Amino acid sequence: MSVDPMAYETQFFGFTPQTCMLRVYIAFQDYLFEMMLVVEGVMLKKLDGIPGCKITPSQIRKCTEKFLLFMKEHFDKLFAKMEEMLLQLVLNIPKNVLLPEDRVQEQYPYSEEEFQALQDELQQLQQQCRAEAAAEQALRAELEEQKVVKAELEKILQCFDGLENICREHGAGNFKESFALLTQSCKKLQDVLKDVEEKSRKMKQHDQLM
């Protein structure tokens, strides 16, 4: 059988021409074997009806096998010619014929270097898309964090508003000023506490020396 891959024909037909011819060959061969079995069966019936016939079934089988071998040899020669004719005249696409799905290549031809450049550009675009997707995902995560922080800040503002309202109800004046005075008072108390602790430490050291 032909060893030509016939890729263009395979693209058009959807199967390789060699595969088609192989199936035809197998079908003819199976039909030939079946025909020989039928002929053998008819001969056995005919001879069985002849009185005194000395031809045995094994002799008929040998003759059938010889005839089958003879037929197969001639069939292979005829099939080789038929295969060559079908592959050249029926299952062959001429070199000057362009399939409809490939006409775009005729309209927009490109070289191997141009194709490689397009491949490189496509790869770069894919990398950019992946980078932009990763950046978008990071921005979304940051936005979610900002939403959480915003909610906490709103809670804190509500708390300060509540404290300011309480201060006003009790005549404490402006909450910010009161908070500043409270902070200064706390600082003074911390300084006094440190001074007391320092004096207490010195007194303990003096008692130990005495």
From TrEMBL:
UniProt keyword Cell cycle present: yes
Primary location class: nucleus
One GO CC annotation: nucleus
Organism, as annotated: Oriolus oriolus (Eurasian golden oriole)
Family assignment from sequence similarity: Belongs to the mis12 family.
Official protein name in the record: Protein MIS12 homolog
GO biological process, one term: cell division
InterPro entries the UniProt entry points to: Centromere_Mis12
Taxonomic superkingdom: Eukaryota
